[in-house]
Amino acid sequence: MTVGPEKASGDRASSTSVETIELLEEVLHVSKRTVETGRVKVSVLTETEQRLVTETLRSRRVEVERHTLGQQLQPGESVPASRLDGDLLIIPIVEEILVVEKRLVVTEELRIRVVHQDEPVTQTVPLRRQKAVIEQLTAANDDAITP
């Protein structure tokens, strides 16, 4: 809308003034709300599976043999030391016997051998696995589940 003096056809110094009046303004307000569109049900299932496991177990045992010697030591001779012969440990056993004089007599030896033995072992071992089952509920099922 224009308000002001009218222009004269020969008037060079004429001025125009424009005034605007706002009549209507729209204002926007945005809001959010939560709307339930459905529900889901989550179940966890645990399954057990039997697996056959085979492994080799190693064990050790010793075998002790006694060998009678009856070997006399000469006076002043020292007691024989224990010794290794391959995988065989030999331990001399000495005792004093009473004769008119004392003598050391090796009466026996203990021979100890370490024997390694491998034995395959099979055993059933339970393994557990869980699965999640998700079920979309319909409107008819919604009443049956309470959160």
Q: What keywords describe this structure?
A:
147 residues; mainly beta; 4-stranded antiparallel sheet
How would you summarize the topology of this molecule?
Layout (H helix, E strand, L loop, with lengths): L38 E34 L10 E3 L2 E11 L3 E36 L1 H4 L5
Mean pLDDT: 81
End-to-end C-alpha gap: 63 Å
The level of helicity is under 10%
Major β-sheet profile = 4 strands, antiparallel
Structural class: mainly beta
In total, how many domains does the architecture comprise? 1
What count of helical segments does DSSP give?
A: 1
Report the portion of residues in β strands. over 45%
What ranges have pLDDT less than 50 throughout 5 or more consecutive residues?
A: none
Spatial ordering of strands, largest sheet: 1-4-3-2
Q: Element order, helices and strands?
A: EEEEH
Gyration radius, in Å: 54 Å
Q: How many beta-strand elements?
A: 4
Q: Which of globular, elongated, flat, extended, rod-shaped describes the shape?
A: rod-shaped
Short structural summary:
The chain has a four-stranded antiparallel sheet with strand order 1-4-3-2.
Give an account of the 3D structure.
This protein is mostly beta strands. It has one domain (39-142). Helices cover 3% and strands 57% of the residues. The protein has one helix spanning 139-142; strands at residues 39-72, 83-85, 88-98, 102-137. A 4-stranded antiparallel beta sheet has the order 1-4-3-2. The longest helix is centred in the last third of the chain and has 4 residues, at 139-142. The chain is rod-shaped and about 155 Å long. It starts with 38 loop residues before the first strand and ends in a 5-residue tail after the last helix. The model has no long low-confidence stretch (mean pLDDT 81).
